[in-house]
Predict the 3D structure of the following.
Amino acid sequence: MRFMIVDDSKAMRMIVLRTLRQAGFEGDCLEAANGAEALEIAKSEQLDFIISDWNMPEMDGIALLKALRTAGITTGFGFVTSESTPQMRELAEDAGARFVISKPFSADDLSGALSGAGV
Amino acid sequence: MSVTDAELIDVTVEAMTMFLGAAPRPCDRGPAPAEAMVSATVQLGDPPRAAVTLAATTPLVVELAACVLGVDEPHDDDTHDALGEVANIVAGAVKSHLGVIAMSLPTVTSGTHLQLRVPGAELTHQAALCHDEERLLVQLHERQEQTEPTARLRAASADGSRRHRSPASPHREGSTP
């Protein structure tokens, strides 16, 4: 599996990576600090799944997801975010996100969400 | 809609535990003004209706970052980033209780004798947590519903000054991680 973790917080990217490992996912993992950086990486790298924050500078998570789909990139996508209102969940689902996990989260939460997303 | 003290404490403990791997415990006070501390603030609403602030003693913030990054001496940027992310998580949970949509990125600052002033807002919730000998204070400032100008003038003349100052709370200016 090849993941990309997108979050403006380096600490949170490390926590997501650590949680992925705890949940039993191995393999390569790329990182990006905002949506714009992630979009450039996604255009040039083969990825299996993208785990992204929502609220980020430069380009936020939902704008990233829409930009990916507009660019024809259909890589699976899930949000790990500190804010998850029903409206945001609906927006995420409409844009093609497979899940929205609220921070703080556990290895079980992430593992369950990825399993549900077919990963 | 509002948040309770218990909910504010619970989400702060959960967020801190995700970083530290151990749960901080409620205690009687946050950092003393003269202690070196780091504070992180996230504003909720557009225009801002509330602000969540975390202020922690510097060794606790260093430990937060060290635990996550797996290093002994994290860089200042990384310690600020770690506390900013904890504040982000707490604010995200509070946001759903307040029914607001917009949320700012965290603003982080460090020093001693830090004071937060949110014009027009009052300190509505506050809780202190301890981890070993280190301390953390979480605060929620909320603006009251906007009143008509006449009513506001009457309230001001009846109450005297409407400005509210909270003890041991951080200033808003600083770096954004």
Remarks:
- The longest strand of chain B covers residues 121-131.
